[in-house]
Amino acid sequence: MKAVSVEEAIAMIPSGASVMVGGFMGVGTPERLLDELVRQKKTGLSLICNDAAVPGKGVGKLFDAAQVSRLTATHIGLNPKAQQQMLTNAIAVDLIPQGTFVERIRAGGCGLGGILTPTGVGTLVAEGKREIEVNGKPFLLETALRAQFALVHAFLADYLGNLAYALTSRNFNPVMAMAADTVIVTAENIVPVGVIAPDHVVTPAPLVDYLITNG
Amino acid sequence: MDPQTLIARRVAKELGSGDLVNLGIGIPTLVANYVPADLKVFFQSENGLIGTGPIPEQGLAHPTLTDAGGRPISALPGASTFDSAMSFGLIRGGHVDVTVLGGLQVDAYGHLANWTIPGKMVPGMGGAMDLVSGARRVIVAMQHAAKGKSKIVPKCTLPLTSVRPVNLVVTDMAVIGFAGGKATLLETAPGVTIGEVMAVTDADLVIPDHVPEMMI
Description:
heterodimer; A: alpha/beta; Glutaconate Coenzyme A-transferase; 9-stranded mixed beta sheet; 6 helices; 12 strands; B: alpha/beta; CoA-transferase activity (chain A); 3-oxoacid_CoA-transf_A (chain A); CoA_trans_fam_I (chain A); CoA transferase subunit A (chain A); NagB/RpiA_transferase-like (chain A)
C-alpha cells in the first residue's frame, strides 16, 4: 500500500477507464475521489456502481458532469439526470438484479468465471444468457465482473491499509476491493497499525494499493 | 381507515415471532408501524442491516445509518451489519422469512410484475427480483386497482419480476392466495362484498364456500 494525495490517485485513472465505486445511494461512497474525478475531467468512464445516487451526491456528480459513457447498475430511478442520459442514449446502461450484481463482482474478485443464480430465470434478465439446470432447478449463468479501478470508502484504515467499515456504509466496498486491478481507498479515519483488531479487519491490507492521505 | 393503512395492518398480521422480514418501498414500509410491540421481528434493510429501527429524531441521524432509499434510520439493540454479498445471500438463500413488496400487476397464477413499465418507467429492478426469487414467503401489498383498472390480471402484460409465484396479495379490498396454483379469494375487506371484489378483479378468482372478513 502506498499513501498518495487525492490528485495523484485520480491522475492514474485515464479517461475511458472502467471504475467500480462503492456505496449505496451515496452512502459509503468515496466523495473526495469523485470530486477529484470531476475536477480532472475524466470522461468516457465505464462505471460499475449499485445505483446512480442523486444529482450532486456520490456518483451522481459524474452524471451531472456527463463523464459516464457506460453504466452497470441495479437501480437508477432516483437520479433523473442518469435516467435522461439513458433515455437519450448518451450512456449505455446495463441494469441487473442487485444480488446478481454483487455476486458477479464477488466472482470477479475470487477467481470464479461466474455464478449460477435462480434470480431472473424466465424474465427479461435471462435474455441472451445460458440457463443451466442443477439438481433439476434452473439457474442463469452470470459472468464475473471486474474493473481496472475500484474506488472504496472505509471508516478506518490503518497505516498498512487494513480496512474496517461503519454500519450501512460497508455495502459493496469490501466486495469491490477484491475485484479491481488497482484499489484506491479513502477513509474517515487513518489510524496506527493495531487500532483495528485482527478480528475486526474486513478488508486485509494486501488488497489496498493506494490510501488517500488526509488534507 | 385509509386504504394504505388497512393494507399495512393486515399484512402485519402475517408476521411471526423470530421472522426475518424485508419490507419494500411504499405501502410495505408502513407494515413495521403495525407490528405488536411484544412480537420480536427482525427487519432487514438490504443495504446491509438487520434490526432496523424508527427514523431518528431531527438532528440525530447518522450519515452511515440509512435505509435502502438512502434515508436515515436507526438500529435497534441486537442489530447487525454486513456487506451486500451477505445481504443478498440472506435474501436468495431462503434466510429471509417474509418479503413484502409493492406491485404493478399480479396475475391469476401469482406471477408478479413490479419493476418496469417499458418505455415509461425504467428505473432498474434493484433487489426486487432476488427478493421474489429467494424469500420463503412473498407478500404483495398494493391497491386492488389503479385509475379504475384492476391490478389483479388474467396474465401479466408487464415484464415479470420472477417466475416464482407470490404467496399472498393483500389489497384494500381483499386477501388473495395462490396455494392451489390459482388466485383464490381468502378474505374481503371490511364492508366489501365478494361481488364487489369480483367486479374490480380482471383475473378469475376461485371463491371458496366461506370467505371471512379481514381481521384488522
